[in-house]
Amino acid sequence: METPVPPVIWKGESWPEFSEQLPASPFEERLLFVKGETMTEEIKAKIKSSLVNGQLPCTVAHVIAYELDVPPLQVGQTADEMGVAISLCQLGCFGYGPKAEGKSKILRPTTKRDEQLMERLRTRADKGKISCLKLWQLAAEFNLERLAVSNAAEVLGLKIGPCQLGCF
Predict the structure, then answer these.
(1) What is the pLDDT of residues 6-51, one digit of tens each?
(2) How many Cα atoms within 13 Å fall on the side-chain side of residue 111?
């Protein structure tokens, strides 16, 4: 059975399941998704009620997207419009302390090497870059923490992006 291709533009009908094929390009991953004014207000209300120290943790942003059946990018864009910073990136890329002090990220090259994972990272990367979504998928595939997979990507010198929430 052929894997269905996800819709390129969100129109509120359905969103591809986690296991479905990725968008063809990073550009498609970063398209603006709109479900209407009512949904935007609902997202804003959820964000406001979910802030931790004035910020929205990455995990919570994804929960909001799941609960409201909207793409994570829409939650991230709404948070940005509200002036709310996303914190505690699940891949360790940002949000763990003051950037000026070099404490913003917890991403570190791993010393443990799983050659099968490293090979999958190499094949999934494009021009030295790999998306947040692809790292999440690899974490699920290898039954690893997301941070462990991003740390492995760091060993290979891969840049991570784009972020599913639109943070980078």
Answers:
(1) 333 333 444 444 434 444 444 444 344 445 667 899 999 999 999 9
(2) 0
